[in-house]
UniProtKB/TrEMBL annotation:
This is GTPase Der. Keywords: GTP-binding, Nucleotide-binding, Repeat, Ribosome biogenesis. The keyword DNA repair does not apply. Belongs to the TRAFAC class TrmE-Era-EngA-EngB-Septin-like GTPase superfamily. EngA (Der) GTPase family. The gene is der. It comes from Desulfococcus multivorans DSM 2059. GTPase that plays an essential role in the late steps of ribosome biogenesis. It comes from the Bacteria. NCBIfam families: GTPase_EngA, small_GTP. Residues 2-166, 174-349 form the EngA-type G domain.
Length: 435
């Protein structure tokens, strides 16, 4: 079913609109009794067109947090998962910087977007719309989520822009970014991966003007290397035109599923490597750590392990990411990268059923009871996976702010172990439910 996602800053009326649209069918996807307020996914049908409505409301609890990196990333992800996005703005409050910020995210996504201006209760209030044209919107829809004004016009338009049936790509293409500090060997690795023996299907223009992605096949599976403009060796004599800048590396992280983090092992693991790994982690990519130039490292049977240990210590936050030693120069183990990529990607895109998730959560809660915190008895109600890439879980708690960081980490680890998501980043969002 097509996915329609509601975005907007806190308190613009997302959940009111969500309830209004999904109530029209009285069917709830989630079977948790008595919690309609906390629903994130709901089913709706309009003019015979069925769709799933997603409320991203829980991502930003208050205005202050809104610009924070992780929330932006979650919204971007939610947008990426959507077929159509509805941006809801506040007709009473007027245009806010948040709206502009969201517009940037939406425009870069190239998804169909409808713009709804809420809290307009009737025709006589439609002048509140005018300032929203300053955002460069062609057709803002005046609505009142609370009273229903304009909602049917919005839905008429919505079902007309929903793609008839979600076009499933004939085969899934894994998007890979190669990142690392200058001279770590990124270009060499890319050239290896796109080596002579492989068929490069095409170079596709990416989202930014100068970005070029390379699509290629290995064992009949398609992969896409992000941002390879000028990197690919066209002939034996042509030298690469453009080197990777850090900025370019970071930009490619926004579009990838899996980041290959290339580290110059001959040089040791540096702070810069760790901070690049940090960026990849923050963006929520699946990560594989590649200790490159292994041919240069003087080694005995303990060397690789010593490197892995050092890496784990320096980048604890990526302890779940597979690491391997390679040589882009000699090609050693480069071809094995693909099976690692496949394995991480499979986890990265996994959906865990609500039943399994709550079983794991329930057991974890029994094994290690949530401690009293700030005098509050913590109660965890249930959890649901709300998105993939990476797997993101929302857990409803009575006092989310009182959950200690270490207990949160405990739960994350339990979810990892219980669901087999051992090599992908996962996210756990705690949401308030009073109850
Ligand atoms: P980039 O800046 O990350 O794209 O790095 P390059 O691919 O341009 O590599 C920087 C230098 O390291 C070049 O001189 C490469 O030939 C060399 N290099 C890259 N990978 C390896 C490797 O695995 N072993 C050795 N010995 N040299 C490498």
């Amino acid at each position: 079913k097509p996915i329609v996602t509601l975005v907007g800053r806190p308190n613009v009326g997302k959940s009111t609109l969500f309830n209004r649209i999904t109530r029209s069918r009285n069917a709830l996807v989630d079977n948790f009794p008595g919690v309609t307020r906390d629903r994130i996914y709901g089913q709706a049908v309009w003019n015979g067109v069925e769709f799933t409505l997603v409320d991203t409301g829980g991502f930003a609890e208050d205005d202050q947090d809104f610009f924070a990196g992780p929330i932006r990333a979650q919204i971007r992800q939610a947008v990426q998962d959507a077929d159509v996005v509805i941006l809801i703005m506040d007709g009473k409050g007027g245009v806010s910087p948040f709206d502009r910020d969201l517009m940037t995210v939406l425009r870069s996504s190239e998804k169909p977007v409808l713009y709804a201006v809420n809290k307009i209760d009737g025709e006589e209030q439609e002048e509140r719309l005018y300032e929203f044209y300053s955002l460069g919107i062609d057709v803002p829809f005046p609505i009142s989520a609370e009273h229903g004004y304009g909602v049917s016009d919005l839905l008429d338009e919505l079902v007309s822009v929903i793609p008839p049936s979600r076009p499933e790509p004939a085969e899934e293409m894994i998007k890979i970014a190669v990142v690392g500090r200058p001279n770590a060997g990124k270009s060499s690795l890319i050239n290896r991966m796109l080596g002579e023996e492989r068929l490069v299907v095409s170079e596709l223009p990416g989202t930014t003007r100068d970005a070029v992605d390379s699509i290629f096949k290995v064992n009949d599976k398609s992969y896409c290397l992000i941002d390879t403009a000028g990197i690919r060796r066209k002939g034996k004599v042509t030298r690469k035109l453009e080197k990777f800048s850090i900025i370019k590396s970071l930009r490619s992280l926004d579009r990838c599923d899996i980041a290959l983090i290339v580290i110059d092992a001959a040089d040791g693991i540096t702070d810069q490597d760790v901070s690049i790994a940090g960026y990849a982690h923050e963006r929520g990519c699946g990560c594989i750590l590649l200790l490159n130039k292994w041919d240069l490292v003087e080694k005995d049977k303990h060397t690789a392990k010593a490197y892995y240990d050092r890496l784990r210590l320096a980048a604890k936050f990526l302890s779940f990411a597979p690491a391997m030693t390679i040589s882009a120069l000699t090609g050693q183990r480069v071809s094995r990268i693909f099976s690692r990529v496949d394995a991480v990607y499979a986890q990265y895109t996994t959906r865990i059923t609500t039943g399994q998730l709550n079983k794991v959560l329930g057991e974890a809660l029994i094994r290690n009871e949530p401690p009293l915190h700030q005098g509050k008895r913590l109660k965890f109600y249930y959890a649901a996976q709300v998105s993939t890439r990476p797997p993101t879980f929302v857990c409803f708690v009575n006092y989310p702010d009182a959950v200690h960081f270490s207990y949160e980490r405990y739960l994350i680890n339990q979810i990892r172990e219980g669901t087999g998501l051992t090599q992908t980043p996962i996210r756990l969002l705690l949401r308030q439910r009073t109850g």
